[in-house]
Each structure stands twice: as C-alpha cells, then as structure tokens.
Amino acid sequence: MSNDTQLSLFNESSFNQKDLIPTDSKIPIPADTYPTIDDLAQHCRICQRCELGKTRTHAVVGRGNLQATIMIIGEAPGQQEDETGLPFVGKSGQLLDKILASVELNTDNDVYICNIVKCRPPENRVPTLDEMAACKPYLLEQIRLVNPKIILLTGATAVKGVTGDKRPITKIRGQWLEWSGRLCMPIFHPSYLLRNPAKEKGKPKWLMWQDIQAVRAKFDEIRNHG
Ligand code: URA
Q1: 3: CA distance to ligand 1 center in Å?
Q2: Which regions span the lipid bilayer (predicted)?
Q3: Which of 113, 119, 173, 223 is least buried, going by the fewest C-beta atoms within 10 A?
Q4: Ligand 1 atom nearest residue 92's Cα
Q5: DSSP code of 177?
Q6: Domain ranges of the chain
Q7: Which mutation among 56, 80, 88 tests ligand 1's pocket best, with the greatest number of atoms within 8 A of CB?
C-alpha cells in the first residue's frame, strides 16, 4: 500500500451517498446514517422516497442553529419555502420569528426550524400519512443530530407526524409531553394565528403568548440548571 493510500485511511468522512440513495420509501434509513446535517441534506436533495420529490423545486431541510436548545417542527414547505429551500420564510414564518422575538429567542442562537416533510405538497395540501412516513427517518436523524432539549410541534399535523397523537391542537396546545425522552409542546401553527388574529384573553394569539412564555421559562430553567 502506498503512503498516500495509508494516509487516506485517516480521512474523517466515510459517508458515501451513492451507497445510500433512498429511492424507495420501503428501504429504511437507520439511525446514525448521517454524520452531519449536510450529509442528510445531500440525500434530501436527491430523494424520491415519495411522490413529492417529483414536483419540488428545492428540498427544504432546516434553518437555524444546528446546536439549538429548541427545535420547531412545522408541517411542510409552502411556495416560498420551495422556492428558497428554507423553512418558514413566508408569512407564517415571519409571524413565527416575531413570536420568538417576543421572548428574545432567535434562530441565530436558540432555535432550529424544520418540517415533518421536506418537499412541498402540491397546492399546499396536507401531507399524506405515506409521505410523512417516507420522510420521517430524515426528521429523526435531524432530531438526533441537533439534539434539542425542547421540541415545539406547530399544529395538529406536526403533532400527528411526530407522536401519532390525533387530538385537535386546541385540546393539546400548551401542554408539555414527553416523546422519545424529549420534552415537547404542541403549539398553534402560525398560519392558524394569521387566520384567527384575535388577541383577547382566551383567544388564539393570547393562548400563543401564554405558550411561548412557558417555553421561555423552561428554556431558562434548562440553561440555568442543565
Ligand atoms: N408552514 C410550515 O408548516 N412550514 C413551512 O416551512 C412554512 C409554512
């Protein structure tokens, strides 16, 4: 063996994307497949595990701090997200950023944002159960790699996609639950708040304000006591 070949055995990345092209949703993607989010994103960009791969412009993987304490999981990319390749950059994303800013949280430091499915469903329809299942291994790998202490699930589809709980979001929002050893809170989807902007006590925006303050308090508790 030449010196160069011997030295190449010291290379850090053994990830070979050609060995792992997930063109069939029945082929599992086991835990620990991706060394980094970049490796995962490479796969998402060529993924055809479901029909959404045929119509996407960009796969939308995530944005924010890769070491964030809080991960926010939405439903699916919309038009602007499909065009830019970034989650929550349209109207609901702008509102989400404002909600975070109201308790001094942001994606530069504290938050990483992603979705249940990485590709835009046509006409912004809700992703099907099969689409969510085909994409779930990517989400599980994102959660493993970012390793957030708190997960916020925005809207009923995100709750169903992660935990399987089918209850309406109005019944479960604001309640902490444990899923896979992680602390999660279902919250309203920002698009619901855009459609229901009432702020009076007990109304959607007021409820969101209670929830995000509870999130901030838990964030501080974790930061101060581990
Ligand atoms: N709605 C979502 O659930 N996710 C996005 O990325 C944008 C809008």
Answers
A1: 50
A2: none
A3: 223
A4: 8
A5: E
A6: 14-225
A7: 88
Tell which one of 44, 57, 92 to mutate to probe ligand 1, the residue whose CB is within 8 A of the most ligand atoms.
92
What's residue 25's pLDDT? 77
Of all residues in the chain, the percent with pLDDT exceeding 70 is 90
Ligand 1 atom closest to Cα of residue 157: 3
Distances (CA, A) of 176 to 52, 103, 186, 205, 211: 32, 18, 8, 19, 10
pLDDT at 149 over 50: yes
Q: Is the CB of 25 under 6 A from ligand 1?
A: no
pLDDT value at 210 more than 80: yes
Distance 145 CA to ligand 1 centre (A): 21
Q: CB neighbours of 36 closer than 8 A, spacing ≥ 6?
A: 145
Task: Mention the CATH class of domain 14-225.
Answer: alpha beta
Per-residue pLDDT of 159-189, as tens digits, reads 999 999 999 999 999 999 999 999 999 999 9
Q: What is the pLDDT of residue 18?
A: 47
Q: State whether the beta carbon of 81 lies less than 6 angstroms from ligand 1.
A: yes
Q: Is 132 strand, coil or helix?
A: helix
Q: Is the CB of 115 under 6 A from ligand 1?
A: yes
Rounded distance, CA 27 to CA 3, Å? 38
